[in-house]
Amino acid sequence: MNHYGAFIIQTNEKKLVEGAKQGDFAAFNRLIENYRPRIFGLAVKLAKNREDAEDVFQETFLKAIDNIQKFRGESSFGTWLYTICVNVIRNKYGRSTGELLPLEEYLPRAEHGDGEHAELFDWDDPLSKLTKDELKQKINQSIMQLPLKYRTPFLLRYTEEMSVADVARTTGLTLAAAKSRILRARLAMRQSLNDYFLGERGKKNNVRL
What we know:
The chain is an all-alpha fold. The chain has helices at 3-21, 25-46, 50-67, 77-93, 133-145, 148-158, 164-171, 175-205.
């Protein structure tokens, strides 16, 4: 999309927001329809099951209706909705959401205890590898295994394509904390998928023709 197209969309969204604030339910409904697939998709990835995701989805938009007058336009309407969704998830599951291993545990080491060099695939951004159904399923499983506090910024950054600044704003984190959690999530994902790739290669090497 070019800059002109983006400008038109932003302008139309502002008009819909103003209409919604004036009590125009049709305007609010159009805003909701624009973001329905993405908000529900995020809820599915953050909630523990689909039923919870549907509850989160409904509560997100109910809260948006109740609080539309508080939306000041300092961020996009979509970012505001994501913030509500993230807060609903936090309230539902609490803030004690698990922890990852220390950062150094994910960094490649020169040697293992047995003297063999560590092996680590350079697979770059995990979401760029969605080419096979089996691999896609494994990546999704790895994402779901991340603690919620890391999964949330990771998904906002790489599936919702938010800037790190918007991720920080949406989650209520400092910019440094958002960067740190995204990095640690990427490293945890890399470790998980590295084990998978090594296992798959081992299977192929053991196949007898």
